[in-house]
Specification:
Helix content is 4%, strand content 44%. It contains two helices and 37 strands. The longest helix is centred in the middle third of the chain and has 10 residues, at 164-173. It is globular, with a radius of gyration of 21 Å. The chain has helices at 118-124, 164-173, and strands at 11-13, 17-21, 28-29, 32-35, 43-50, 62-66, 69-73, 97-102, 107-112, 130-134, 137-141, 144-147, 152-155, 158-163, 181-185, 195-199, 202-206, 209-213, 226-230, 233-241, 246-255, 266-271, 277-282, 297-301, 304-307, 321-327, 332-341, 344-347, 350-353, 359-368, 374-381, 391-394, 406-407, 415-422, 425-427, 441-443, 447-454. The protein is mainly beta. The protein has one domain: Kelch-type beta propeller (Neuraminidase), CATH 2.120.10.
């Protein structure tokens, strides 16, 4: 499905005037319209679709970038998983290639993982791995998919270290990739759909689940059986890596059965009002007592967590392309989410609840001001039902903190490339889960340049 096609098509999303979503306890509530500068410094966001030669479409993958090139590992080539156990997460939809993309040349290269040892190639074609890049190393944890060795679908218990420069060279030149990987096993790594972040030398593996067997919406007692165990934890540890030996140490576990019982969420690095750094866990699924998304958020700072009791998130509930920006002069943190899946939607100017939890076009922004007050705002729309299980690659030339939060105050120029939205699920309509034959969605081939453009305040109706 091609939306807003053509390399010169541009979809403009002004961030100056947004729809601020305030308290909405009932099914329908009129949102309040406010005029505000959603990302600070008077910038708007512009999406420009580009076409990458040879890129066949992908979602739920792990990614890294180095020297202007991207590496995509794992994930799926089909669309939203089907309800029928025999068809859900079929091995035929696994991404069995390592994909390298040069966005400047708009070209891609690929190499099969099937020539690698089974324990490695099976994890490298799994979906929803937890991943994090540090310099030239990419660390992959867990992931769910079919294992020929086990004869079943499993959650992998692996931590794999990837030498990104080695892998890019091997894929582009057609050489052996084996030397680019090292792998260890531990039950703590058997997770899928969680997130991982880093503060200093400590890694934080947050949420997720261990799921073994075929997906079955009727439950494990009806048809093909499965086992499912939510982590409900933050697993904090150090990665010891001298480029030869790989291990972990200083493992600490924090459990919260109520607030960390979630997966498939967005987590973004944050600068909090006291200048402490950490992460915020946004929404995710499923609540312990109901099959609906969480609407609260959880802050992770050093060795503790804190639930935001005064804020409710209504938009962008599942994993999607996302980016964090900080306006240091205003001490305002912005977390921007591009499309995805949401329990709430806008209909004729009203916010309505849809427990089918459909795809959404909404681009949402959650801001935290200098006093800690959080506000959610609709700042625009994707040009289709896009963004779910996509990834955002920040342009390395954008000024950013070590945690990859954009330094808004240090951006120079009137128009700057912020980064790219890559892949994800492209759906033909918003609600397909209960009538999904496999043709209603696909792994998206679309890549969007995301531009920051200074707003002309005079043209926006402002005067000095």
């Amino acid at each position: 499905m091609r939306i807003c096609s053509g390399s010169k098509a541009i979809c403009v999303l002004l961030l100056l005037a947004g729809i601020a979503i305030q308290a909405c306890a009932q099914a329908v509530k009129k949102p309040q319209i406010e005029t505000l500068n959603s990302v600070g410094n008077g910038y708007s966001i512009t999406l420009e679709p580009i076409s990458i030669t040879g890129f066949a479409g992908l979602h739920s993958f792990a990614g890294a970038q180095l020297d202007g090139k991207w590496v995509l590992i794992g994930g799926r080539t089909d669309g939203l998983h089907r309800r029928q156990p025999f068809a859900s997460f079929a091995a035929t939809g696994n991404n069995t290639n390592i994909v390298v993309i040069d966005p400047e040349l708009k070209q891609s290269w690929s190499a099969t993982v099937n020539d690698l040892p089974p324990a490695l190639n099976e994890q490298l074609q799994s979906t929803n791995m937890q991943s994090i890049q540090r310099g030239k190393m990419l660390y992959l944890i867990g992931g769910y998919g079919y294992s020929k060795t086990a004869g079943n679908h499993i959650t992998h218990n692996k931590l794999t270290a990837v030498k990104v420069d080695c892998l890019i060279a091997a894929v582009q030149k057609g050489g052996s990739m084996a030397a680019c990987f090292r792998q260890i096993s531990d039950p703590a790594f058997a997770l899928t759909g969680g997130q991982i972040g880093r503060i200093g030398d400590s890694y934080f593996l947050v949420g997720g689940q261990k799921f073994d067997g075929r997906y079955n919406p009727m439950g494990p007692d009806h048809g093909p059986g499965f086992s499912q165990q939510y982590s409900e934890q933050i697993r904090k540890f150090r990665i010891n890596d001298d480029q030869t030996v790989l291990s972990i140490s200083k493992v600490e576990i924090s459990t919260d059965k109520e607030n960390l019982h979630r997966r498939d969420f967005n987590m973004l690095p944050q600068i909090f009002p006291n200048n402490e750094v950490g992460f915020t866990v946004f929404s995710g699924v499923f609540q312990p007592t109901a099959n609906i998304p969480f609407t609260n958020t959880v802050n992770v700072v050093s060795d503790k967590i804190k639930v935001e009791g005064a804020f409710t998130q209504y938009l962008n509930h599942y994993h999607s392309a996302k980016v964090a920006l900080y306006d240091a002069s205003a001490q305002r943190m912005s977390s921007v989410f591009f499309g995805g899946i949401s329990q709430y939607e806008e209909n004729a100017g009203a916010l309505t609840k849809n427990d089918d939890v459909p795809f959404t076009k909404v681009i949402g922004n959650v801001t935290r001001d200098k006093d800690g007050k959080m506000t959610e705002t609709k700042i625009g729309e994707m040009p289709g039902f896009l963004g779910a299980s996509a990834e955002f690659f920040l342009d390395p030339r954008v000024p950013m903190y070590e945690s990859e939060i954009v330094k808004l105050n240090e951006i120079k120029g009137d128009r700057v490339l912020l980064g790219h939205i890559v892949g994800g699920i492209s759906s033909t309509r918003k609600s397909i889960f209960f009538s999904n034959s496999g043709s209603e969605s696909e792994g998206s081939k679309m890549v969007f340049k995301v531009w920051l453009t200074k707003i002309d305040r005079r043209s926006a109706g402002e005067t000095k």
